[in-house]
Amino acid sequence: MPQAATILNNPYLNKGTGFTYEERKELGLVGALPPRVQTLAEQAEQAYQQFQRIEDGLDQRLFLMKIFDTNRTLFYYLFGQHIVEFMPIVYDPVIAESIEQYSEIYTRPQDAAFISIDRMDEIEDTLRNAASGRDIRLIVVTDGEGILGIGDWGVNGVDISVGKLMVYTAAAGIDPAQVLAVSLDAGTNNEQLLADPLYLGNRHERVYGDRYYEMVDKFVAAAEKLFPQVLLHFEDFGRANASNILNKYQDKILTFNDDIQGTGIICLAGVLGALNISKQKITDQTFLTFGAGNAGVGIAKMMYDELLREGLTPEEAKQHFYLVDKQGLLFEDTPDLTPEQKQFLRKRSEFANADELTNLEAVVKAVHPTVMIGTSKQPGAFTEVIVKEMAAHTERPIIFPISNPTKLAEAKAADLLKWTDGKALIGTGIPVAPIEYKGVTYEIGQANNALVYPGVGVGALAVNAKVINEKMLAQAAHALGGIVDPDQPGAAVLPPVERLTEFSTTVAETVAQSAIDQGLAQTDLTVHDAVQAMKWEPKY
Ligand SMILES: NC(=O)c1ccc[n+]([C@@H]2O[C@H](COP(=O)([O-])OP(=O)(O)OC[C@H]3O[C@@H](n4cnc5c(N)ncnc54)[C@H](O)[C@@H]3O)[C@@H](O)[C@H]2O)c1
Ligand SMILES: O=C(O)C[C@H](O)C(=O)O
Ligand SMILES: [Mn+2]
């Protein structure tokens, strides 16, 4: 291929009209671009004007992806300038639409690595080819089985890996040339995809069990071999596999599961922020988690560990938790429990009406939660009756309906404020604009793991941490909670997305310091220098 085309088609190298005349001469680009040389700021302004002419969210995303595909510096410059506006388009909730339509609207692989369970001998080549000589430090991998709350989307799920990585760079500044999105295609049980002639993944049912774990093992081994300093971020795996994978690798390699641990930290941070506002203690709270899957149990575990750190015994701490799933309140004799759910079961003898506790309303009446978190994928499950019942027994109910995307949220923030007369302390999965209620402007915290995983990952990478452990995660949660101004009327329980880059640095430094303090870091740099050294800036 002639040199001009090679450069102009490489998004890591291409500056488009940003190439100076000298560069054009040097690189063999003379005449291959319109004559005018633009600055990055001018290119961004032109792109933003085009963006503003597009109305539909998915079309806006496709436009931004076109820039991502052609000029990654321009993409991140633009993203950095419009972070609040672009987050819901590049990431959740619009990313859900792009995943559902991935095969139909596919144009480019976006540098992802596509691993197939049917070709396990090609795993190493796959990673090597997708990396194309890049020094990979961060992989976001998904098998697409539990995409947000929308279920099994097979290979289409790769978009969540691409999207999560975009947020990493925008928030914590990791060099986009050092990241790799990976799809593990074990098949899909999504009938719609299996019947879709355009579906781009393996057209067979999902493989579980030994062969599945053999694929994961081979992927992990190949990734560690090719990229010895890599962090493996697992995203949107199904409930049956996610914890098994985490438990298998978390003490051996640098890895974490975002849905279990990232979500746990952001919810702990949100609860700490809420308690700063209500001036209450975490040890006085009663936690109800509705939807006890990856996120739900991960959240309960993070809160439970916090109660232990506050000095409660395991027995005392457990008394603060109630898990509710499809079966209702989870008891010791409830059928079909997952191993993770078994950490937080209740005894039927605690209740006079245990057999009636098969739905959320009955459980809320019986246990009077002060913190209620929704990770159930059941839209509208936090009804007016339930929320009013909760609010009748606690001054400032902490309510986080965080199922994604928008259509799956357990409640809308505006309704929660109305039903509790402005008392609810709210966290939502997707961004929500400020809400006026009785003369107060309520800022709504976004309890989405995106506010915290970039800092955690980059902090761990910055000091070459050997593992990511509970202590680092807890300290990350506290670092975020501390950024809230609790005395402002209508204050949010979490810091605003417009300060994402600032608090991602705080989280990164906290995690890096924690790794050093625990003797788990491998660096000679100071924390500040190490985190700064990870930072890539979009500039020519
Ligand atoms: N805001 C965030 O940062 C964040 C992070 C992770 C997950 N989530 C959201 O949480 C939701 C769950 O994700 P996950 O990864 O835990 O999925 P999961 O499949 O592991 O868990 C979902 C749980 O909900 C339960 N459930 C299903 N129907 C129910 C019902 N009628 N009543 C009660 N429980 C029911 C399932 O049995 C399962 O245990 C998704 O919508 C996801 O988008 C949000
Ligand atoms: O992707 C998100 O928006 C958050 C979370 O990881 C989820 O699965 O919903
Ligand atoms: Mn997720």
From TrEMBL:
Residues 68-250 form the Malic enzyme N-terminal domain. Its cofactor is NAD(+); Mg(2+); Mn(2+). Its EC number is 4.1.1.101. Coiled coil: none annotated. One of its GO terms (cellular component) is cytosol. Keywords: Lyase, Manganese, Metal-binding, NAD, Oxidoreductase. This is Malolactic enzyme. It comes from Ligilactobacillus saerimneri 30a.
